[in-house]
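User: Could you check the structure of this?
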Amino acid sequence: MISVFRLWLALFVLNSALTFQNRWPTLGVRWVAELSIELAALLLALALFAVWRGAPGRRLRYAVSFGYVVLTLGRYLDVTAPALMGRAINLYWDSQHLPNVAALFLDQAAPWQIALGLSALMALLITLAALLHWALGVVMTALQQAATRQALGGLALTLLALCGAGRWIPNLPLEHRFALPVTAMLAEQAQMTLAATLLRDSRWIARQPPLPNSDLGRWGKGDVLIIFFESQGALVFDDPRFAIPLADNFAALERSLNAAGWQVASARVESSTFGGGSWLAHSSLLSGLRIAEQGDYHDLLTSDRATLANRFTAAGYRSVALMPGLRHSWPEGRYYGFDRILDGKSLDYRGPAYGGWVIPDQYSLHRLHQIEIAPTNRPPLLVVFPTINSHAPFTPLPPYHPDWSDVAVGSDKTPSSDAAALGARLDGEALATAYVHSVRYNLEVLGGYLHQFAPANALLLVLGDHQPPAIVAGRDSSWQTPVHVFSRNPDLIRAFQAAGFQAGIKPGATALGGIENLGPLLLRILDGRADRVLTDVLP
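Assistant: Sure, the predicted structure tokens are below.
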């Protein structure tokens, strides 16, 4: 006979396995006083089975235990992914990127650390499975006793009735006592998988209006550099944890550039992604469409839609993609229509590696200038450059060299000493500190380039591609990112201000719209059709 204590302990374990919450900002979990509707449904089903067939066999016990482990792991994903990433997980698309994400966080971990971590993970999973199997065994054994079966069946029916009443009667505050069911999340994942495969409609792109045509000649066809600052979200201006330590850096950058003849106007836009998936934001800007998930991205790459690079090429520009993070072929570059792709190999970097991305952004920008911008008698350039050193885990960070000749090929021999330990890479506070340093590095590189190298007639469009992961940004952060334009032409700056930008390095409080609006906006302004910017481009 099962003791009352063992039975209630088993029920406590089973309920906790489907109701825990994330302990932000960590990978850990915490207990909460909620009830699992799925456990109630399982208790009722097992009680009815015991009446109908008696004691469950060994296969059924293991099948139920396996299903419960799946539900528990599903619960972990459901509460951890949004807390740390800032968005719900899409298992179909996100699982494809897990190896690359893991490699970024483990790039400097010793093999023994990785082996120890994997062993600890396997031990944890085995312990979890054994604990749940024990708890389910206690419940199934207890259900063979008529009195216990009636009590648990009645309890299950009561909980199901209370949950249903809370859902259907608005004034009855019962629903919040129950955890969100994991089965709903699993059903949603199945629905998203079908939507991404069998039910996908890739023709939606063909139904969208094309990017505007433009000869881009209104301002003399100077070079245009679009620089995506990796992970620089609007929190650098909105969240005191970041805005306060970075305020002097932004102010100093603005003062020094104004003294050198550069003017700046700023705004904010809604990114199409959060905490990762940078290519979705990049493709949104380049295509003029909101590319918000991997399926949209695949649809875009198989379409014949003209991109920003195509429009600039048609206007006589040479388009260059500076992609220092590329370590493999990039067929997307052919779709976008770039005339040249400067990848990691092309940049010929021979210095120390800085994390999984290896190459310092300052070096990449310096090499771009030497190869493409410094030569004379060349066509105007469109450059698209996604930076890499402010990518999570934001460390190790290369040193900034005020004398840019120090970052020439092979001259940077001293690796950074700020590489974080593996544990710190999974700690929200440590990541937040490293994030501040990475933003400072971005600002130093940008200021140094504008002071020392940027052509006088150049226009720089500098924006964050997305907010950092929620483990840094917080669980309720917006999807907004800042965007800045730098130019020595006051009339060009005023054209951006007419479109909603405001003078200075700090953006206004209201987003202009989605990041996908920036490409059409840029084409309209460079074509001199400022009077049509607001009505044709912005929502």
